[in-house]
Design brief:
Blueprint: E1 2-5, E2 21-25, H1 27-42, E3 59-63, E4 71-73, E5 100-107, E6 114-116, H2 118-128, E7 137-141, E8 158-160, H3 162-170, E9 175-178, H4 187-197, H5 205-208, E10 216-219, E11 231-236, E12 247-249, E13 253-256
Helix pairs in contact: 2-3
């Protein structure tokens, strides 16, 4: 069995549109913190110097959004209401069997910045000789992962339009992944389109499709070009169980026999 890590890291040195900070408590600080906690919560005095090396355990405090690094978008991310007969699920409510499934990766590295549709996806599926089955996971290799950590990662990639999303959901797909920042086209591209056309239908169609049809997205994947074949592998991408959240971080790993 071979495992290939398809996750991008949470890295405070990366350029991010939302603030990200990581504060580490050293082992020495951990010893002093332990003494303070014992005194505050249990009324007990404890000398941290009796610990080996006067050190205890490290700890890390993070301030970040649930959309930092590789993560799964839950239906609740797309809006507060749906038209499919049930409230949108938050990330801890998602069926776990959606996230350990056969997967196929489609190469969109030749596509220009913007969005591609059903015709391109059909051609790519034909190219790799794959027929989708219900609950398959579809991964999009856009080439955006090479820009991770830079501001261009958020403006230079290709996403899906509504026809592309519908094509996959029609085949029973419930999880669509991308190595880009978003399954939609870049924000800048979307706003420019709207300003030119005045058509609200161009505003985040891949995300807003989730108000009408229940599905999840995996965004900010990495290393998709390391996969030795387009299909014939299983993807494991379980999201962290954050109650009430619209997304959860995930460690995405391809499992190959």
């Amino acid at each position: 069995m071979q495992l290939i890590d398809l996750s991008s890291p949470v890295d405070a040195s990366f350029w991010e549109p939302e603030p990200l900070s990581i504060t580490t408590m050293s082992a020495a600080d951990g010893a002093r913190h332990l003494a303070s906690e014992m005194r505050e919560h249990f009324g007990m005095d404890f000398d941290p110097n009796v610990l080996p090396g006067a050190e205890f355990l490290t700890n890390d405090t993070l301030s970040l959004t649930t959309h930092t690094g590789t993560h799964v978008d839950a239906p609740a991310h797309y809006g507060s209401t749906t038209t499919y007969g049930s409230p949108p699920k938050t990330v801890e409510q998602l069926p776990v069997d959606w996230f350990f499934r056969p997967a196929v990766v489609l190469d969109l590295t030749d596509a220009p910045v913007g969005a591609v549709g059903a015709d391109v996806l059909r051609a790519k599926l034909d190219e790799v000789g794959y027929t989708l089955s219900p609950l398959d996971i579809v991964l999009l290799n856009t080439g955006a992962a090479r820009l991770v950590g830079t501001s261009k990662y958020f403006t230079e990639f290709v996403g899906l339009d509504r026809s592309g999303v519908d094509l996959l959901l029609d085949q029973g797909v419930r999880v669509i992944g991308t190595d880009a920042f978003s399954l939609d086209a870049p924000f800048t591209h979307i706003i420019e389109q709207y300003q030119q056309t005045g058509d609200p239908g161009v505003l985040w169609p891949a995300h807003f499709a989730g108000r009408e049809r229940e599905f999840c997205q995996i965004e900010r994947l990495a290393n998709l070009d390391a996969l030795p074949r387009a299909h014939g592998f299983t993807l494991s991408c379980f999201p962290v169980k954050i109650v009430g959240a619209g997304a959860g971080w995930a460690r995405a790993v391809a499992v190959l026999d």
